[in-house]
Batch of 3 targets.
Target 1
Amino acid sequence: MQTVSDICVFASVQPLDWSAAALDVAVKVLCSLGAIMLVMCFAGLSVVAERKVCAYIQGRYGPNRTAIPVVAAVPLIGNFLKKNGLMQLVADGLKFLLKEDPLPAHVGKFWYLAAPLMSLSPVLIAACVIPFGAYWSDGQLCPLSAADIDVSLVFALAVSALGVYGAIMAGWSSNSKFPYMGAMRASAQVISYELTMGLSVLPVVMWVAHSSESPLSLFEIAKAQGGLWFCIVQPLSALLFLVAMFAETNRLPFDMAESETDLVSGYHTEYGSFKFGLFFVGEYGHMVLGSSLFIVLFLGGWNPFPGVVWPESWGWAGALLSLLTFIVKIAAMLFLFIWVRWTLPRFRYDQVMRLGWKVLLPLALANFAAYLVFMSF
Amino acid sequence: MMQEIIYFVFCGLCLGGALGVLIVPGYVNSAMSMLVSMLGVAGLLLLMEAYFLAFVVVMVYAGAVMVLFVFVVMFVGDRRDNTGFMKKVALVLLWVGLGIVLGLFEPEILKGGVSEALKSGADRAVPPAVSVAKNYGISLFTTFMLPFQVAGVLLLAAMVGIVAVAKRGTHKKRGGMESA
């Protein structure tokens, strides 16, 4: 076998320094854990935010009574946590963990157990290429991301597209009517909107290709937005990407895969306890990932305002501020997700399909062609 | 050492998935085995530092084409044929035989590409040609212009054909209604 011998040769030429290699691996693992922690924290907090914001929109208080006995008695913090529903978060998490974990007799066991993992893990993998900030090192801007590869945009889109298998396999293995319909809807919807998503990103890549050698890198795209952000330069692309993102993350008004009114609870009807919890976290994780992508592509990444960048001379403070800027932007995007969910009613299924194929796709194609013509002058 | 282990893991995914397509009962299970096989192929491409190609394989084949496969299988209904023992043996033999043929074949173009990618990967200064996304675009629009366009025309023809076939059904129904 030609290939094997080649790889053996390749491995033996590489100088092996085990301590350096171990340190390298440890740093990489820590970076990945950091990215995962960021996504998971936001996923958890957005569950509380969802309840609080929807309560605010509907003129209610939302969760404000759950209290952990000792913590709630701490003078200032206790009351703050209680009133803002942050202890509800702990209660929800514990509920998922401690409830009985049912395994219905009629399910296909292997895929039934694998599906929740398949819906959560792509989100966490894709989070590793998002540049959450930037720092200056030897006069060069470097990304604060776990992995900086030169085609990270393609990586993020490809891996996050695998998340739909969670919904499909959950619906299929549940052996029951409503989950099955939810899974069918999820697969059709994701295929339809992925085209729009890909086409709406292309003008941005073409724009960046003027100034950068690797325009498919998320870091390069964010770096190119030191001046005007791409949501100002290319508003139509941004709008198309945003709509496609709502559809890809299965959020209302594109909540077809689990629309409670006609499908009970869609593809995860047969799930309970922690397996449902994984789907739940997966959905919010997808929102966080989608928001991060949108921020990097159109909202200037870690830059605070259009035309303003954190100056090089600030050193580590600038790096910290860039990370904070990104976090504030993610929070704002999540608020937008929740706001839209509690404002717009759900589309009908045929409306979703018509919007995807007859409105968004032609618009995205026209937009792409228009920028193609515009760029060539 | 590490590269070798990873290489064999991806090879295992690739070949195991391919075997799974042949012998696993149920159409959806077969489709999922194919997904595993494709992820293995993407991993092998990653080892050759053809990052762009690897992610495009994941995005197009795993993320869209296989979703469509599973959708169609679910739409027409999954079936669990009870394949006989002899048939399974024959399929495994086919898998082994194809593997032997491909192993002996060793296409020239593949051999050169792999060894070149690995050799230039040893010194980090120059990235290998396959790992720069731009090179794909340039070669698609220069060297491989004709095959690229022919493939596009073929796909267009297939699409037009499908639309024609699907349209004829509705025409007949409408005609029947009118005559009734």
Note: The longest strand of chain A covers residues 134-137.
Target 2
Amino acid sequence: MTDPAPTRTVSVSLTHLIRSHKDGTRVTDDVTLEVLTGEVFGLLGPNGAGKTTLVRQLVGVMKPDSGTVSLLGRDVTADPRSASGVLAYLAQDEPALNDLPVSLAIETTGRLRGLSKRDARAATEVLLEELALAPLRDRPLTRLSGGQRRLAHVAAALVGDRPLLVLDEPTTGLDVTARRAVWDLLRRRRTEAGTTVVLVTHNVLEAEQVLDRVAVLDHGRVMGCDTPGRLKALVSDDVRLDLVWRADPPLEDPTVAALLARSTVDGRRWSARLPADVARDALARLTSGATLAALDDFTLATPTLEDVYLALGGRDSDLERG
Amino acid sequence: MNAFLALYAGQVSRARAARVPLLFVATLQSVGILLLLRGVVDEGSRTTSQQVVAGSTVLVVAFVALNLLSQRFGLLRGSGALDHYATLPVSGSLVVLATAASYATFTIPGAVLTSIIGSLLYGLPLSHLWVLIGVLPLAGASLAGLGACLGLLAPRPELATVAGQLGMSGVLFLGIIPEKRLPEVVQWVRAAVPSTYATDALASSFSRHLDAGLLVQDLGVCLVVSVVALSLASASFRRAVRA
């Protein structure tokens, strides 16, 4: 997606948000962010980074200990109910909808967002087509697969054309085709209606392909916030070398030993972030010597947002790559 | 109104599959009690007969409105489903009202069936059965309001279920046993429970001569309790959402 125009107004403004557990641990640690109107903005971080806690404060269902949330000029901290007039929120699960048939779940949500019965029906039909849910329209959500159910939740979030969509991991469990359908739909909403999207993800590919700007979160803190391109420029001299060993790696080889010291190890999979020339040199030596026999596979890749997360000091990365 | 109807239709739809067997159980439970007590209650004891039939009928309402609704709201709260409603421009009162109304709707066939079977079994007149038109919605609203409160205030869904079942047992005990046979302390409890007034109103409809003043008085209490219970449930909803 293209960069947002610099003159756009601010849709979401979070100022010094703090929320702590009872034991004093901060789950939201002094977060200040602005999301521009018509922007697809992402919150990227591993599980437990505090993304959901942050968006629950954003949509007004969780009260921050201090700080303010403003949505399209409305002070949500002072009046949490005011958020419901401007946004649609998709939580990680939507148990309130799960007993309903797909079309009724979407239609009911549309009517609750103020559409007449007729308009809600028409909007439901459009969404069923757009997300290829039409064949499942009469099926209760509980009788769908995880991915199909998630897609129905997405449809319910999109009905009613809210100017601000807050979506917590909307594509979790979706196959590639469905995931692309959701991304296309979000892009279309942004282009045609100027919809602002705040999207929570722990999927690097999603972040890089869909987001205009991304805030990288860890332990409740914003570690960096910029366009994916500019964030990746922070680590542009680095590449990622991934190795898969066929058997136990030959640790007596000095190149292998040096790589081990700089790799994160997951069984026989090693992943190292290295300066490009170092990686090239190491790979040349690995593939020309006796170590090649022990290597099952290798890839050399340009940095991703996962590398940015690690370079910014992120720990416990369980970010998804695809 | 559009939002109320949308919520109501949604609730009725989600309930259709699961609730019909449950309603069958609720009706069977009340009819079972009628049959059981038929062998115990003396032929000539008209007041007791009226009380048993009225109490069994209100028990159908209590089963659905108090027991099932407290379970439903306990689950909604426990699963985080209240966030869905909290981020939609509908008030908590409307969600509570629409859900309560849909549950109350499902009590109608069972309650009507129970009172007719009861009247026939115990030889009571059916001429004033129209009183059900007032009793069912008011008993439904007051007990549903209380059921919603229990579900929304209980810290865990299992506790909501237990509270709902205890409430239903209370309705059963206090509704079916004639007031005069209860110890004085329990009579006070009976006077404090909203289902009592619905039971008394219905019991009076099984007499040959209906005491209109008493009926209006009983239904008036039901109405007041309904308003209070539903207001409390709305407040509980707001509290549960912003916890």
Note: Chain B touches chain A through 27 residues (CB under 8 Å).
Target 3
Amino acid sequence: MESLLQKLAVENGLVLAFAVVGLVVLFSGAVSRHLTFGRIQGSAIAILLGLVLAYVGGRMTGGSKGLADLTCFGGLALMGGTMLRDFAIVATAFEVQPAEARRAGWIGATALLIGTFLPFVIGVAVAYAFGYRDAVSLTTIGAGAVTYIVGPVTGTAIGASSEVITLAIAIGVFKAILVMVTTPMLAGFMRLGTPRSAMVFGGLAGTVSGVSAGLAATDRKLVPYGALVATFHTGLGCLLCPSLLYLVIRALFPAHA
Amino acid sequence: MTLYGTTLLAVCHLLGILFGELLGRALGVQANVGGVGIAMLLLISARLYGHRRGWLDAKSEEGVHYWAALYIPVVVAMAMQQNVLKALSGGPMALLAAVATVAAGAGCVAFINRDEPVSPSGQAPK
């Protein structure tokens, strides 16, 4: 019996993922209505629950893909993977009011630039405080604070050690998760309510996964505006960190050259 | 037909990712530069153009709306496969860097958005 269920689950991975996620969303909606009386959005609870399950999955398997590393939940890797996530994000563009997006274009681009420099500087400062002095490590850790993809791309390009790269990824993943969880709580403080405000947020918060989940948990209507800007974040970071920003850091910390 | 909408979406997606890759190559970056954003712009343009020319009907649009509606479940599935252990393994330094970055970012967003109308979030209707 057990092997039959196992076989069923493995051969129908994606279908099972739809069922499991649907149930989690349904359950979260009920918790939102009955326990929080609608104060916390159902999708926010679902995302938080998803992260808890990811932790449990990681503890059980020691793998890197959370719950998706359990053989029977392998379909989650496809459903929540980059391909379908980006496909769904592109689909939300159908809801964009072009006039709104155009009006906020410049401020979105400005936010994108600040959203690259600011995390980088903070990452470098924290690395310095923890005793790192060489330009390569400082730059890699700073890049990790931009997004968890910029960190390893930069580290590999400029030849950082593997433990520094691992640390940079950890910072980036931590940041993405923190954005997912705190966005709905900070929505009032950040005045997230209009398309323009969402574009500013998308540029500054970076990390597509953080922004897409954070806005989903706050107000689904804002998702396309934030995502439109956020999707340029990783590319811009990978462009600036190993080049311009690395040269600046190397000029400031020439010790090991 | 509903599938036409999904096809339009798929074509925009692929073209956007392709342009993003090419842009990355041109800039000498080992990453896709804004592929998804370019795909979104293509889809927005295709929708405007299709409406004007009249070849985009409500039935075809359903093929895009369905995927947009799947957005939240897909994001929940994404949350389920985050490497939470890895994030926690970074220790106090990863914690400090991430918290400081998010706090500074939120402060910056609040500053730039200071003149925006206060959001109705929290009670935002689903």
Note: The first helix of chain A runs from residue 2 to 11.
